[in-house]
């Protein structure tokens, strides 16, 4: 490529839209879909009204959520459009009102369910990224920008809270829902472990499958202390016969040998027995019925939550969980036999970036939960004092606003992470550009982590090989390469699965695979 | 060094208060030393000009305990007997937080005031003032036989009026859990027994809100403001509903500046009838 061609490409990459584009795309996706997804996950707010005798139960149904563009509410009560420059100068927050459809529904016990009140009400204010789709300056020409006091060269991509510009630091996390096989040591012996960070709707659970020194597989997951025998768990999930378990793990003769050892040492033979054994572990000393209930709850709730999906029945999910555990077992054995290397955590294929939209989604989820708790409290209070229940008098809009603004203003994110939002580096123009394209590894900077700090071959073309700070943060804070493209998660997983099924992938849960006729037919 | 009002016991000279001691300015006698500094030790590294907080939230009048709540937290490290003990302690602590019926009422009322203030988009200052007003109403024993909801709505309405950010009764009632009669009963009691420093509402206070709700340009709002002034000079304001006057002035201003606005729209926003609006409008035109 000729040098001036390269220069032309570089110039394109450094044009206004491209520099903070990952921030815009991520935040716009959050505004367009993410917020509604979070609301749909929540769906209803249950109350304790109706626990008393002769009282009808009440709950709230959450509907469509809508964000307008940033506005400022003056003390005299008037509301006006807000531009970023005004927010900066007046030390106010560049935030847009959020509205949500809510219905209070009463009944279900004696009388029929009926809607008491239904309105779209303001639930709070969402800080808006400067330059995003909901920003008041989006689509402005250069002269219009100058007229409202905005710098046309400003890349945007940050928030404006209490007048200070805050950028959300992209963070680099280990990819969720992937099996990672690696070596570990336990009591001085080397063991093989397959790990999965299973993630669904903000809930994250680490599932471990270990092959101990005597060759027995054990699984551990949240809510169960210690570990559970692999065969017991798989049987509890409905994979019962010896043959099927072995077949699902592998057809490799050596692995089959390992599996037979495991099956011989098995504590239980049937699904019922397995669930009983599990029940003794999760609720020891409780009644038999409660133990069974608890065991079923635990495997449906805490074990591999990412395999749950809307429109797939529990039965099928359970068997899929069993299959997934078999894959983890296979990874353990393969590692033990030296058929594969341990997975490289620093490989960029095993990394995912959390950009501003993902971070805002986490924040909005907890803020909405807080709001829901407040609505519940207000409803119960209003009901106790025999007041008319209405949507507008039970929603306190400052609850959500406070929960959204405070983390951005201080950088103390949900889940105990700190330093997530930083003051935009305005030392010079290049400083801003570099700051918007920076990413941070959540690893502690006080520990050595030599491998994590090293330049990895897979960072080629993605991460700048030379721009990293000196000192404790060296190699943990990185910067995007100039021509890096950040791909986004797909909007609709169902659509992708249908596409895969039509191409001949069979066994996808919830989708009837299409019968493929052999080519020679 | 500040000079104190007291004088030196030896020579009657002026005393000077320093960092840690009080010294006579004339003879150098140390009158007091190692005094306790009751002031806050400002310690904010971020921007100490605007945020002068050391740690924790500042004291606020909008909480029954001034925001100095102590909570017994939870820990996953506690197990068994100790955990149960802390659960009991927490429960007892929560019970002992509220001492009397009056305090319980205050907790509920302050929560309600906070909700109202957030629903009406008012400032924190209004919130604090409302809470103070509620407390004084409570100490004057005005609440007996009247509803707390009515009183919370009334104190917010009253504070808005005294701090010149008036809201109409309708606006407050809409956000409140009280009916209009409850509100007026409470407001009358407040006004009678506490002597609120409220005068007649200036219609100009309503203008910006109505104008933004009607989506009128700034020019119309400014013109309406001068019209209100003109009406005041001609004595058209006294004895009239201020929201009616505000709506009338806005309507006239919109007409003069050829802006689309019907009488019905303006009247509806202000919560008055078009007849009320017209009376101001016609008088102003003369």
TrEMBL record, chain A:
| Entry EC number(s) | 2.7.7.6
The top EC class, named as a word, is: transferase
Keywords tagged on the record: DNA-directed RNA polymerase, Nucleotidyltransferase, Transcription, Transferase
* Gene3D superfamilies, sorted: 3.90.1100.10, RNA polymerase Rpb2, domain 2
Q: Which residues form the RNA polymerase Rpb2 domain?
A: 176-354, 422-483
GO MF, one annotated term? DNA-directed RNA polymerase activity
What the entry lists under InterPro entries is as follows: DNA-dir_RNA_pol_su2, RNA_pol_bsu_protrusion, RNA_pol_Rpb2_2, RNA_pol_Rpb2_2_sf, RNA_pol_Rpb2_3
Q: Name one GO biological process term.
A: DNA-templated transcription
Catalytic activity reads: RNA(n) + a ribonucleoside 5'-triphosphate = RNA(n+1) + diphosphate
The lineage's top-level taxon is Archaea
Q: Name one GO cellular component term.
A: DNA-directed RNA polymerase complex
Domain RNA polymerase beta subunit protrusion, first and last residues per copy: 19-401
Q: Is Nucleotidyltransferase given among the entry's keywords?
A: yes
**SUBUNIT field:** Part of the RNA polymerase complex.
Q: Which family does it belong to?
A: Belongs to the RNA polymerase beta chain family.
NCBIfam families given in the database record: PRK09606.1 (NF007175)
* Protein name per its UniProtKB record: DNA-directed RNA polymerase
Give the organism, scientific name.
Halorientalis pallida
TrEMBL record, chain B:
Annotated region Disordered: the residues are 40-68
Q: Which InterPro entries match?
A: Cyclin-like_dom, Cyclin-like_sf, TFIIB, TFIIB_arc, TFIIB_CS, TFIIB_cyclin, Znf_TFIIB
* Compositional bias (Basic and acidic residues): 40-55
Per UniProt, what is one Pfam family of this protein? Answer: TFIIB
An example Gene Ontology molecular-function term: DNA-binding transcription factor activity
Cite the repeat ranges for sequence: 111-194, 205-286
Q: Which UniProt keywords apply?
A: Initiation factor, Metal-binding, Protein biosynthesis, Repeat, Transcription, Transcription regulation, Zinc, Zinc-finger
Name the family the entry cites. Answer: Belongs to the TFIIB family.
Name the chain's protein: Transcription initiation factor IIB
Q: Which gene name belongs to this protein? A: tfb
